[in-house]
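For the sake of transparency, this paper describes our internal protein records without simplification. An entry from our holdings is shown next, in its original layout:
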Amino acid sequence: MRENFKYMIYDIETVVDKKLLQRVLYPELAKDPEAAYQKHLLELAEDNRDFINPAFHIPVVIAVAAVNADLELTKVGILGKEEKTPKALVAHFWQSYLEFEPLLVDFNGKGFDLRLMELWAFRLGIKLGPNYFSKFGPRYRFSEERHLDLHEYLSNYGAIRYRGGLNLFSKILGKPGKMGTTGDKVQELFDQKKIFEIEDYCLADTMDTYFVFLRTQVMRGVLGLDQERHLVQQAQEKMAQMCEELGVFKEYLQHFEFWSPDQP
């Protein structure tokens, strides 16, 4: 089973913990978290910013792709089991990791996703154990044996700043990248209780991350281009099956293309 879950490719969508934001930054606005949230947005806008500090984020959707030792996609889905509460999502994430200890793969996980999961392990009192905090464990910046942050890898650990993030690398490979939904719209969708749309978006980001991961393995000489195309085709077929059964990936598959060396 461990070989079928050698790589844990994941993405997280979050909203703002308005109550915590109010308690920490605006104690004078007791019992009015929404007012505190709106005030903070205005303050950020005055500084030409719009992203609220990760300390005040709540995970509302976590998508995971399980990839085996042959780099085949074996399963992709949304965490949470019976419940979809932040507590259930975070517990399922860490349970999956601690049971199999796969190599974590993400995009900007060192700057956001994995740090958020650690913060929520702190909030919920989840034991991560000594292996997680070992010298060359997932927290070690330059270790790619336990955690591969594709953003760090492709930017040579910040030596260059590429504009576009995961969207850039996905579109280079002919994959959809960002379509109608973007991360800054998740809060609005959540407030409107459009959870399916958030889940579909998170699954799409996870698949984009998988395809970018495969291309890094081509760069490393682990895969040939023919092997990569075969794995991408297998993943496309799995997404098509999930689209038929669950309704997810519909828009993603409409914009899906196979990479061609003749692309500009």
